[in-house]
Amino acid sequence: MTENAISIGGVDLADPDTYKSGVPYEAFRELRLRAPVAWHPYKDGPGFLALTGYDEVQAVSRDSATWSSQAKGVMFHVPPLEQVAPVMIYMDPPRHTALRKLINKGFTPRQVARLNDHITDMAQQIVDDVIERGECDFVDDVAGALPSYVIAEILGIPLDDGRRLYELTEILHTGFVGDGANEQAMMQMFQYGTELAARKRVEPGDDIATSLLHAEIDGHSLTDFEFNLFFTLLIDAGGDTTRNLVAAGILALLQHPAERQRLEADPSLMPSAIEEMLRYTSPVTVFLRTATKDTELCGVPVKAGDRAAMFYPSANRDESRFADPDRFDIGRAPNPHLAFGGGGTHFCLGANLARVEAAAIIPEVLSRMNDLELAGPVERLRSNLINGIRSMPVRFTPAQRLASLS
């Protein structure tokens, strides 16, 4: 299918290297204006339809009958089906629906209440740990610390183990299938999950790992392999969104000092500021779907088996939905962004948790890490899936020095 192919100045939207220097917003803008559904070649496999308009991304997201996650997976690389069939993000209803309900059952009211109580304490402790140093890597020491601690709490594992598992997900995101480091990281994740399952069967706790091990789907308990896949998904998805949101959100505030001052002067803007950070930074770049039948999208004929890539950073800057979309406005309203997906079956499970975590850590950073500024170059992830920052050195006034000056 090449009749609606379009040149965008040599930008390869499937190449991880494209995103090392930032999201190609200019290429996305050109596509939105000229062809919001455009055929894009892929050097390592069949091409795909690049969806860059808000309406197109939302339409595909909400129609899992026509657009399958299971047929060819949700990433550019098409994995062997037997390797990913049990993974929830690669499933379609009704099995996906049943497993999603299982995950939700793991978050009992008691677990959620306890977690909310701890998140604020965790955020305070994370800033306590760096506040006297006067400098840190914001991604590792702050933005990445909170979600790794929270997911450790959810799973009932030591907090330090959560940090190590977070490091493994970074390897998974920046590697590729067939890469030794990538496969070694996955083996370590599975080994930890297997040992965790064995331990929780003997010593059950009030945590989601125990809930998963005791739950049943279609009358059957999860196998060790299925549990490992759930475990890996929770570690991965549970950390990505918050880490990328907090790091990129703070960077946006540093790059827009007037908006930072506005937020510091009016903390009631925090909820809308977080929504704007989600829209403006879009922590996930893309997911793909496969057409289950001949159809059309925005007037473009689509054949069964064609793949479509939903580019969320582009949809979140669609001029037809957002006034002055390239402006960072912490008071933007309405703000119907698609940072957690376009709705439908695969809407992000951790959306509310990410908002709670961001609302806990960002005020701690702004109120206590005084004179916060960049202290070196920002290094982005080499990833065509995750829109994230790998390293962000910052400096600030240590608490003791600040006290002496006052």
List keywords for this structure.
406 residues; alpha+beta; Cytochrome p450; five-stranded mixed β-sheet; 12% strand; globular
Explain what you see:
42% of the residues are buried. The strands form 5 sheets. A 5-stranded mixed sheet has the order 1-2-10-7-3. Strands 4-14-11 form a 3-stranded antiparallel sheet. Strands 5-6 form a two-stranded antiparallel ribbon. It has a single domain (16-405), classed as Orthogonal Bundle (Cytochrome p450), CATH 1.10.630. Helix 5 runs parallel beside helix 15 and helix 9 packs across helix 11. The mean pLDDT is 87. By secondary structure, the chain is an alpha+beta fold. The protein has 16 helices and 14 strands. The chain has helices spanning 25-34, 54-61, 81-84, 95-106, 109-130, 138-143, 145-155, 159-174, 180-202, 208-214, 224-255, 257-265, 270-281, 312-315, 351-368, 399-405; strands at residues 37-42, 45-51, 67-68, 135-137, 216-217, 220-221, 286-291, 295-297, 300-302, 307-311, 373-374, 379-380, 389-391, 393-395. Strand 1 and strand 2 form a beta hairpin. It starts with 24 loop residues before the first helix and ends with a helix. The chain is globular and about 65 Å long.
